[in-house]
Write a structure and sequence with these properties.
heterodimer; A: 250 residues; alpha/beta; 4-stranded antiparallel beta sheet; 10 strands; 35% helix; 26% strand; B: 308 residues; Alpha-Beta Plaits; 2 domains
Chain lengths: 250, 308
């Protein structure tokens, strides 16, 4: 997939990005950028506005004010090009449970407009990478959650998107598989893919190049894990998170 | 001290899979017992069996002195159960849900609200809101209220903190600690290893089995070999390099550090720092640290897979 992202400095740049629902300001003028090839951790308590912000960035929800460029495309005027330039997976929505592994690759390959031979080539290299060649005809629902999540990550990258959004990709996954998943993230980032990830595991925040912590619709703090800990005088990101992210109840 | 729960040789199969291999577990009265493991570990199956909502294939279960097959009714009035999925009536208001659960257990609503006052006081501003329209944290508090209206002796919670942010998780555990202090026995499942520290006893579960049960401190004591924590600015490269160390046992990331265990049981931090420098990947520091529950869990998972 080609994009004009090469001309842009950043993979993602948000300027005063805002979303209101009636009188409620879910996302309140947030400003940030994500560099190309960076692993960016987007943290915040439940209800802080993370999901709303992500939905605007991936073109599923209109911004009330402000704007953002994703992979060099304007989220207001080039929404469809934004969608084709990103990969997305979440804990809740990943692959089709009643299709086989290979059928999932074929389905998404088709949606992204890949040729049959391209899908075949990419799915076999992805399955080889995961050591799951012998499971290509398995129905997805028969596989352990950790495998499904790894497969979903591979499928999200089928069309070589410059940016992949991962929304709580490791929830409920065992500690070994969780780490293997993060090694896949590192590999993708080393290959130049930008990773935008949310998580409730605070140890995973430490694996990011930079993180932001949202509270009540605003980004309260942003920087490398080391910088954030130093700024807040916290021993861990967990501790920093607790200081910033007082839980928000509507 | 008497056991609130005794599980003997209990197993459960589903159509195409095994939910629980034959399992034994004792939970002492007054404890907070944690069932810790990923999805598919068997936590929900075990909790459902203890709560008597699920039949099991083999073995025996005794809860608060009653047999789960013969006296399940006696168990149900003494046990509170909060399932993993939000299972209240979404179209009923907060107060209607609590009233409903109180009436099922034959408790006056006033008495019910008095019992759950600590938690309900945070919910009362939304008393007339539909349960389905509550935020995640508030749903969780409502579900807890409904599980507590009949003043259970034993409280069973299935993944109450899954998908919940780190701050809300802490506050939820503070609520559990308070209930426990007032004498309630609590069994709680979680995928978050760091929550083990809040339990008096934990069972590490994986693949339908309890791998090990014990006090968190004892489980950590049982970790084989020293853990070397390495701090580096080149995490991925260091991780890959360490896997080629001639004496490596296991390497994994652990928060901001990399944890290394050595087949010889131990390694001097300076030796490791030299080895990394010799391989052109110098680290910032290396020190021996106390293993965490997650280190123990990973070690047990790896040993389990060697046995097969």
């Amino acid at each position: 997939m080609t994009s004009n992202s090469a001309q842009d400095l950043y993979a993602i740049q948000a300027v005063d990005l805002t979303r209101k629902f009636g009188h409620f300001v879910a996302v309140d003028h947030i400003n940030f950028h994500v560099e190309k090839g960076e692993v960016f951790g987007f943290l915040g308590a439940n209800g802080a506005g993370k999901t709303t912000a992500i939905r605007m960035l991936i073109g599923l929800l209109r911004a009330s004010e402000g704007t953002a460029k994703v992979a060099g495309f304007d989220i207001h005027t080039e929404t469809e090009r934004v969608k084709s330039s990103i990969g997305y997976m979440s804990q809740r929505f990943s692959l089709y449970e009643d299709l086989t592994v290979l059928e999932n690759f074929e389905l998404y390959g088709g949606i992204y407009g890949l040729s049959r031979s391209d899908v075949r080539e990419k799915s076999s290299s992805a399955l080889a990478r995961l050591g799951l060649e012998s499971h290509k005809k398995s129905i997805l629902s028969s596989l352990p959650l950790g495998w499904k999540q790894k497969l979903a990550f591979m499928v999200a990258q089928l069309h070589n998107p410059p940016i992949v959004f991962l929304d709580e990709p490791t929830g409920g996954v065992d500690p070994i598989t969780r780490r293997q998943f993060w090694e896949m993230i590192y590999e993708a980032a080393a290959g130049g893919t930008t990773i935008f990830v949310t998580t409730h595991y605070m140890d995973e925040a430490e694996y990011c190049d930079r993180v932001s912590i949202m509270n009540a619709g605003r980004i309260e703090v942003m920087g490398t894990p080391g910088e954030i800990k130093e700024m807040l005088g916290a021993k861990s990101i967990d501790e920093a998170f607790v200081r910033i992210a007082r839980p928000v109840e509507d | 001290m008497a056991h609130a729960v005794e599980v003997r040789g209990v197993s459960k199969s589903y159509d195409n899979s095994i939910g629980l291999h034959p399992t034994d577990l004792n939970i002492k009265q007054g404890m907070i017992s944690g069932l810790i493991g990923p999805d598919g570990a068997g936590k929900t199956t075990l909790l459902r069996i203890i709560s008597t909502v699920m039949k099991f294939d083999t073995g025996n279960v005794n809860v608060l002195g009653y047999d789960a097959r013969a006296n399940y009714r006696s168990i149900r009035v003494r046990v509170g159960y909060m399932p993993g999925r939000f299972s209240l009536y979404q179209d009923l208001s907060v107060i209607e849900n609590i009233t409903f659960f109180a009436s099922v257990f034959g408790v006056e609503i006033k008495e019910a609200l008095r019992r759950v006052d600590d938690i309900y006081s945070q919910l009362s501003p939304f008393a007339d809101r539909r349960a389905g329209a509550l935020s995640g944290g508030m749903k969780q508090k409502l579900a807890l209220c409904c599980a507590l209206v009949h003043k259970p002796e034993l409280l069973l919670l299935d993944e109450p903190t899954t998908g919940v942010d780190a701050v809300s998780r802490r506050e939820f555990w503070d609520m559990l600690a308070k209930l426990n202090k007032d004498g309630m026995t609590i069994v709680v499942s979680t995928p978050y290893m760091d929550e083990a520290a809040r339990c008096s006893s934990v069972s590490l579960m994986q693949g339908g089995r309890i791998m090990k049960t014990g006090a968190p401190a004892d489980l950590v004591q049982g970790h084989r070999g020293d853990v070397l924590a390495i701090r580096t600015s080149q995490k991925f490269a260091t991780l890959q390099l360490l896997r080629t160390h001639p004496n490596v046992d296991h390497v994994h990331t652990f928060g901001e550090t990399i944890h290394y265990t050595d087949r010889r049981g131990s390694i001097h931090p300076d030796d490791m720092l030299h080895w990394l420098s010799d391989h052109e990947t110098p680290a910032i520091s290396a020190e021996l640290v106390e293993p965490g529950i997650e280190d123990v869990f990973i070690q047990m998972m790896l040993e389990g897979s060697h046995d097969q």
